[in-house]
Amino acid sequence: MHIDSSNRFETEPILQKMLPRIIFCLAVILAILLVILLALLSPVAHKAKNPSGPWLALSLYIQQPHISSSSIQPVAQSDTGAFIFHRALTEGPENTSLVVGKAQGFIIPVEHFANSEFNIIYLTFETPEFSGSLSVQAKHVEHKDKEELTVVGGTGSFAFARGLALFAQTDASQSSVADATYHVKLQLRFPNRSQRIPG
């Protein structure tokens, strides 16, 4: 058997030309594998499972304040249809339920102002467990039995709160909006809080 030495010398220049390309491809493949491994094993990726923070669910009622009938302030409603109110925030629907705060608001349901940023309901809490307020934007009020509104902020215990507020009239037979009792279900989230909020 005869080995042609000229063939051996021809493959060496080809290997010398291909070696840098092979090394480059291997380096790229190793870099990609390293990035994938770092992404999978990174402790930061595991901490971001709940980026929005803890959730808090509250169920409350908005009703007439517990004041004698001679001192009740009527609901102000102008010719343009502005609805200004001051109500009690209670734990239950009964008149004897514990008052946990107050609900105040200013809503203009007139066509030009129905989507106004100024239509806000303020829920103020005055309990040992919660102290602060929530701002509920009544931007898309459609006068239905149930209204889903947006919580746009808060103070105190509710600082930076975001979420949903579901308003539902408890007794549809109420003749006027001023006398109605509303059930409010709040779903709140708090960004950047590491511990569970009581409630």
The sequence of SSEs as H and E is: HHEEEEEEEEE
CATH superfamily assignment of the largest domain?
Allene oxide cyclase-like
Sheet with most strands: strand arrangement? 1-3-4-5-6-7-8-9
Distance between the termini: 90 Å
Number of helices: 2
What is the residue-averaged pLDDT? 76
The CATH class label of the largest domain is Mainly Beta
Shape: elongated
The CATH topology of the largest domain turns out to be AOC barrel-like
Query: What Rg do the Cα atoms give?
Result: 32 Å
- Low-pLDDT segments: 74-78
Number of domains: 2
Share of helix, binned = 10-25%
CATH level-two architecture of the largest domain: Beta Barrel
Q: Give the biggest beta sheet.
A: 8 strands, antiparallel, barrel
Structural class: alpha+beta
Describe the structure.
By secondary structure, the protein is of the alpha+beta class. It has 2 domains: 5-47; 55-189, Beta Barrel (AOC barrel-like), CATH 2.40.480.10. Helices cover 21% and strands 35% of the residues. The chain has 2 helices and 9 strands. It has helices spanning 5-41, 43-47, and strands at 55-63, 76-77, 83-90, 99-107, 120-126, 131-137, 146-156, 162-169, 182-189. It has an 8-stranded antiparallel β-barrel. Residues 74-78 have low confidence and may be disordered.
Give the SSE layout.
Blueprint lengths: L4 H37 L1 H5 L7 E9 L12 E2 L5 E8 L8 E9 L12 E7 L4 E7 L8 E11 L5 E8 L12 E8 L10
Antiparallel strand pairs: 1-3, 1-9, 2-3, 3-4, 4-5, 5-6, 6-7, 7-8, 8-9
